[in-house]
Each structure stands twice: as structure tokens, then as C-alpha cells.
Write a structure and sequence with these properties.
The protein has 5 helices and 9 strands. The chain is of the alpha/beta class.
């Protein structure tokens, strides 16, 4: 979740719903770090409201972990966080400990994490660095390594105007735009998924 474009000053962001509502998460001064804005998180979790309770979630390119922590706050059963930047991964562990949340933080790159595990997820947050081209690679890895439940939901942030090449069995469900960011919720259709 690190991007080369200018970032806002370091500080804190607020969890906006659920049991941890009002809790603050530290946002370090890391070049290009762009946490998902409150307004976008609120929209996303309104979309996910009927689905989040008891869900197994994966926050890839986690950065501050705002999306995964918001999911935990709203009743997700489990969240795995993946962040390649060691400083951000350490801060995320500190924040989770302070908030008394039991979740895994893997300081690894997304393709390696996906290739090494077997856990299947109900909801995946996919928000790679905008300077990268990770969307297609990671989307295919989620499928290739069997990391998605049949009817999984995948949330993607990407630059406005770009359309990542995604698996054909992912159907656009909802989308929005905030400035230069396009945010989209996809639904996966697996062999036994009921749409």
C-alpha cells in the first residue's frame, strides 16, 4: 500500500465503525504511504456490512492495516495482514497488540505469501503500490494457489482510469472514485458459488 505520489503528513487515522470505533492507528512518515481515506472505507464497509461478520479476510499490501483492522472491528473472524515493508509490519503488530486484536502479520511480498499458504479467504483487500503493476499478478496468484472461497469478495484500489486485467470469474459488483483513486468490489464465481 505504498505509492510514489505525495502523501499526507504522518499522524493518525481513525477506525470508523464497529467495536473499535474511534480507535486511532498511527500513520508513519513513509514516502508514498496512502491509507484508504475514511470516506472510502465507510463506503466499502457499507457494501460489506451483510458479509463481514465471521469472515476470514486477507489484507494484502496492508500498510497501516486500516482495512483489515476495520474488518476486525466490524466482526470479521480472522484477518491475515501482508506487508513487505518491515517498519510498517512492525508498527502494524504494535497497533494490533494495543487494540488487543489477534491477527497474523506476515512481513513478506504478496506472491510469496499466496504461494506458501493454504488458507482460503472470504474477503480480500488488494491495494498494491500504484507505481507497481501487482494487480494482475496477485489476482492470478489468488486463483492459482486456491486462496479464495468459491463466492469470495475482492476489494481493489487502483489509479482512476486504469483497469487491471483480472480473472474472468470476477464480476464487478460496486465501484466508486475518490480523486485519483478508483475503488471496486468484485465477486468471485467459483464452481459452486451461488450468485
Amino acid at each position: 500500500m505504498v505509492s510514489p505520489r505525495p502523501s499526507s503528513p504522518p499522524g493518525k487515522l481513525r477506525i470508523i465503525g464497529g467495536a473499535l470505533r474511534g480507535s486511532r492507528i498511527a500513520v508513519p512518515d513513509v514516502p508514498g504511504l496512502r491509507p484508504t481515506p475514511n470516506r472510502v472505507r465507510e463506503t466499502l464497509f457499507n457494501w460489506l456490512a451483510p458479509l463481514i461478520q465471521g469472515a476470514k479476510c486477507l489484507d494484502l499490501f496492508a500498510g497501516t492495516g486500516a482495512l483489515g483492522i476495520e474488518a476486525l472491528s466490524r466482526g470479521a473472524a480472522h484477518v491475515d495482514f501482508v506487508e513487505t515493508d518491515a517498519r510498517l509490519a512492525a508498527l502494524l503488530r504494535e497497533n494490533l497488540s494495543r487494540l488487543k486484536q489477534d491477527a497474523g502479520v506476515d512481513c513478506s511480498d504478496a506472491p510469496r505469501f499466496l504461494a506458501q499458504g493454504t488458507q482460503r479467504y472470504d474477503i480480500v483487500f488488494l491495494d498494491p503500490p500504484f507505481a507497481s503493476n501487482w494487480w494482475t499478478t496477485v489476482a492470478q496468484a489468488l486463483e492459482t494457489h486456491g486462496r479464495l472461497q468459491d463466492a469470495a469478495w475482492i476489494y481493489i484500489e487502483s489509479p482512476a482510469g486504469s483497469m487491471p486485467d483480472l480473472p474472468r470469474n470476477w464480476t464487478l459488483h460496486r465501484e466508486g472514485r475518490a480523486g485519483e483513486v478508483r475503488y471496486v468490489l468484485y465477486r468471485r464465481a467459483g464452481p459452486s458459488a451461488k450468485l
